[in-house]
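Human: Respectfully, please carefully check these tokens:
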Amino acid sequence: MNRVFVCRSLPGSGKSFLVDNMTKNMAPNEFVVCCADDYLTINGQYVWSPERAGAAHIKCYRKFLESLIQKIPNVFLANTNLVWSQFKDYVKYANLAGYEVHLIRPKTWWRNCVEVCYIMNSHGLTYEKLEMMKSRMQTDEEIARFARENLDIEIYYQGKVTS
């Protein structure tokens, strides 16, 4: 079964480390990582701006859809994905392409600690912005319920399937 892994967490919480760890023993043709941040670098340095963010997310989405068309066995979506509206279309198309969808989160001890994420994030986000992001984040259970009620899709999270 082909799988999409939706990595969900605050910036600086260890999403990149989690994905790197999960893919380290996979052959290059067995996975693709889709992350808008990959399209926000200039000369190897991360440069975020509102003007560039929209285009970066479109490129990430295109890479994701191309991966589904190519039937890549493991597709990782590594944006923050804090709320359903940010990734529902990814889930919808993964399901239509016959993929299982799994919600994953870093297991770092600081993943929910704004103070540490503030220090660890490479995006220059303010403490206040991270607090706001944390307060908006929906639970995996809420996301799974939205997927079931709105798209009739079952999502796996923490080893559970929503049914």
